[in-house]
Amino acid sequence: MGNPPKVRKELAQKEKDRVFSLLRTEPRDGFLPGQVKRHIRTIIWEDFNYIKSESQMQTALDRLQQLEKDILPRMRLGSNTLRFNYDWVDALDVYDMLSALSLQIEFSLFRKESRGAFYRQDYPNTDNKNWLKHILGHIEDGELKLETQPVDLPYVEPEEEIASFFDVDY
Question: Which residues of 41-67 are buried (b: 16+ CB within 10 A; e: fewer)?
C-alpha cells in the first residue's frame, strides 16, 4: 500500500531539501566529506573490528554519535557546483555510512554469541540453543526495536547446542 501520493510528495521534497542542504562550502575551516569518512573508518577500525566486545561496540556507537553531533554540522564541500561534485557524493555517503554502521552496531550488541564472521570476546561460543535466530529490526515511535525470529532448518539441525566458536564448522 505505502503512503498516499500527498505524503510521498512531501517525503520526496523533504529528501530533496536534505540533499541540497549539503551543498555548502562554509565554514571554510570545516571538514571535507573525505576527512569525515576517514574519521568514521578510524572509529570502526579501532572499536568495531573483527574481534568485538560489548564495551568496544558501545564505544564505537558513542564515538559515531559524537562525530554526528560535533563534526557533521561543520562538514562542507570544496565546491557547490551541481556537476561532477564528488565531495557532494561523499557527503551523502557520510550520512549513509553513519546510518548503516549505527544499525549494524545496534544489531551486533543485541546478539549475545559468536557466529560466522562475527566474534565477540565476551560471548565466545556459538549458541544454537538460544541464538539460532534471525534478528529483525523496525522503527516504532522513532525508536529502533529489535526482535528475533527462529531460523527454519527443515533439512539439517546443528549437532551442538553450544560450541566454541573455533570448533564450529561453517
Answer: eebbeebbeeebeeebbebbbebbeeb
Confidence of residue 1 (pLDDT cuts 50, 70, 90): low
Q: Which of 88, 67, 68, 84 is nearest to 76 (CA)?
A: 88
pLDDT tens for residues 90-146? 999 999 999 999 999 999 999 999 998 899 999 999 999 999 999 999 999 999 999
Whole-Å CA distances, 115 to 47, 63, 119: 19, 25, 6
What pTM, to 2 d.p., does this model score? 0.88
Residues 6+ apart with CB under 8 A from 133: 148, 149, 150, 151
- Taking CA atoms, 152 is separated from 110, 146, 149, 157, in Å, by 20, 19, 9, 10
Q: Is 120 exposed, middle or buried (0-12, 13-18, 19+ CB in 10 A)?
A: buried
pLDDT value of residue 117: 87
Residues written for the chain: 170
- The 3-state DSSP class for residue 158 equals coil
